[in-house]
Amino acid sequence: MEKILEVKNLSVSFDSPKGEVQAVRDVSFSLKKGEVLAIVGESGCGKSVLCKSIMKLLPKSARIKGGSILVNGADITGYKERDMAKIRGKVFSMIFQDPMTSLNPTIKIGEQIAEAILIHHRKKTKDQVYKKVIELMELVGIERPQERYHACPYHFSGGMRQRSVMAIALASDPDILFADEPTTALDVTIQAQILDLLREIQEKLGTATVLVSHDLGVVARAADRVAVMYAGKIVEIGTAEEIYYDPRHPYTWGLMQSLPYFSRGREQLYTIPGMPPSLINPPKGDAYAARNEYALGIDYEEMPPMFQISDTHYAATWLLDKRAPRIIPPVGGKRIEYRSIG
Ligand SMILES: Nc1ncnc2c1ncn2[C@@H]1O[C@H](COP(=O)(O)OP(=O)(O)OP(=O)(O)O)[C@@H](O)[C@H]1O
């Protein structure tokens, strides 16, 4: 499948009074046309900064320190705001956690969607715009669109607002949709509906989607592939099946164990002990070592490379080195036998 986005060795830092915050560290991944890639990890691991650096929506204190961003094969890494403004709407669109940040509560929803259409399709006639508004409202599952056109978001439920935001995000016919925690503010049933909708849209329109979440469980129903981020780095990436049935990084195991499903029958939900490290002077070696019950001596000394497990599955953990001891992972469908040092 054709690559629509390719991020190579991207590093992004912030200047702060306490020092350089290394928010994104040497991240590489690609996104294919029409696929849903989930980026998962605890709060502060760099998911939002990664997405914002691709769309060039970072504050002034941020700098791209290295690496490149290619969109449809064109290198946009050095693009200034003027160049970005030309492509941003056409290529990228986004949905955020709180729909009310993107909606005006007191303007008719139909008018807000129409406005978004007109920004990108200036030559459309009034009738064409109205027709597209209704199509978009139908696409995102807003029933009785002709009637709802005249309703204001403050009358809407949370799920309905998020559907409206999606209609606005899709108004520009973007190639890539970024959805940053789009369901966090919603209750569980509505969460599921919105994720199913994301999947449906991707299937109908072929829009490639980057779905950001702190919850590995939430993205399971929508993602084709999953990238797990920790302390500014992608530590594991693979197809959804590989990540859920054959996870290899101890951090992914920790995230899996934290899911309610794995704590069934126990009194308390599992939580990964400790906290992610500061991204000002992150630890040398594997940043997860201090929280990792399977850490090896080398984890404190040297950063693990990305080990390849299959054509699509990679993980950065010394446990995949051929000299690592044999352990049995706490989660995953497959029993993995690591060879011992011998
Ligand atoms: N404007 C900023 N100035 C300095 N540091 C920042 C700024 N924005 C983000 N950071 C830092 O960059 C790191 C990554 O933050 P980011 O928001 O990308 O994390 P995240 O994984 O998206 O978390 P969350 O789920 O809480 O949004 C954090 O350590 C954060 O404190």
TrEMBL record:
Signal peptide: none annotated. One of its GO terms (biological process) is peptide transport. Its main location: membrane. It is a peripheral membrane protein. It comes from the Bacteria. It is found in: Cell membrane. One of its GO terms (cellular component) is plasma membrane. Pfam families: ABC_tran, oligo_HPY. Coiled coil: none annotated. InterPro entries: AAA+_ATPase (IPR003593), ABC_Ni/Peptide_Import (IPR050388), ABC_transporter-like_ATP-bd (IPR003439), Oligopep_ABC_C (IPR013563), P-loop_NTPase (IPR027417). Residues 5-256 form the ABC transporter domain. The keyword Transport applies. SUPFAM superfamilies: P-loop containing nucleoside triphosphate hydrolases. Transmembrane segments: none annotated. One of its GO terms (molecular function) is ATP hydrolysis activity. Keywords: ATP-binding, Cell membrane, Membrane, Nucleotide-binding, Transport. NCBIfam families: oligo_HPY. Belongs to the ABC transporter superfamily. This is ABC transporter ATP-binding protein. It comes from Blautia segnis.
